[in-house]
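Limitations

Structures in this collection are predictions, not experimental determinations, and the ligand pose is part of the prediction. Treat each record accordingly. The example that follows, with iron/sulfur cluster as the small molecule, is included so readers can see exactly what is and is not provided: the inputs are given verbatim, and the output is the predicted complex.
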Amino acid sequence: MKNPLYGQQCNPARLEWIRRDNPYHKAWGDPRYPFIATTYRVTEHHTAGGMSRWLPWLNELQPEMFVEVSPELAGLRGLENGGWATVSTIRGEIEARVLVTERLHPLVVQGQVLHQVGIPYHWSYVGRSTGDAANELTAFVADPNVSIEESKAFSVQVVAGRRASRRRAAAVGPLAEPEPGQEQGGEPSRDLPQVQAKKPAPHGERSGRQQQTEEA
Amino acid sequence: MEPHGFFTDTSVCIGCKACEVACKQWNQLPADGAYFSGRSYDNTLHLESTTWRHVAFLEHSRQLSGQTTARPFSWLFLSDVCKHCNRAGCLEACPTGALVRTEFASVYLQPDVCNGCGYCVVACPFGVINRREDDGRAWKCTLCYDRQKVGLEPACAKTCPTDSIFFGPVEELKVRAQARLLELHRKGVHEARLYGMTELDQPGTEGLNAFFLLLDRPEAYNLPPEPRVPTKEAGRAWGMMGLAALGMVAAAIAAVRAGGEE
Ligand code: SF4
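Predicted complex:
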């Protein structure tokens, strides 16, 4: 969905890392990823759960990775409350328990229905309670000043059931084919950033610290 | 010692579950196991022999006054706990005297006396007290008797960041609760009500030492609207039994006399 207020669609100052193992979605109207998602934390766990998922007292309060969807989206995708869903982006896919709740409901923007998916942050592969990590999904886009990753708004695909394997773009390349026409100079998928990530050091150049230790 | 208790004001509870964890930590209770319930953020679901504070999360498609939502909807939190009833079913049912009334008016279970018969479990109108499968004995909230003894407030009240759980002398709590209720009504939260504060509110338990301010009907919180301690019915039950016995005697006499006349 295009921003109706500005011609420029994406933050021109953002940092991006454009390489084959770091693919991006189209910034608007990507039919492969029709739902919008956000990430957040719940009170029961701390940051990515690396510390709190070792505590049975906290694990019993939030025992498993879950995603929250509205009853409408659950109906659309055949998701069952307490069952499994697989959420994917072009970077990775995760499985999670489904929590159907009326707290989320579809937005209507420019006459179009937009379904939302809520994804808590707290799971990963170590601890007494383990689960897939939300960071497998989020795009590598960062702010230009302190390189904080933008992880609060992105688009996803949701299907019912568990994932077959934990596929990652970093290991197998983009998880979805590019949109037809998008590659051959068709409609642009995103405004290009004007600032890019810092260029990797040319081969052979040593960092300042290395040099210092060698001199010493 | 004057009666001490809890006033749990659900209107300021933020559902952080700090009380549930603080309770488990102070009393060294084990976790109940990890079970994803799919019922809002509530994964422990009810009070248990090892869960003495339980934060319930309730989602209803019902608009409450004083709240603005896109659709008719309410998300309610309730930090539930043993009510320490003035007329306590568990205490009256206990044959060993393990359950006693303390000097703070709370109902305290002495684990070294409890023999695990389970009579108290069925006598509680709220389903608070329960037996532990691993040791067989009944366990429930002690209102932190050990902490009260040394002048500390119970762990849950101490930890609650919003003072949703307020601990103190019951008479002071009542004044506080009335004032809060008035304030909420003035702000247009018309469904707000107190649950079990006095004997008049709740004759079945003769009032609770741990009472609540609710934002909807008790049923919306899975609380019984009119709880009754079973022993309250004892007088009537014995009366009925007496009546039945009299009837049997009368029938027997009538039968004998009728037989004798033949
Ligand atoms: S600690 Fe207080 S605010 Fe947090 S869940 Fe318990 S009662 Fe509610």
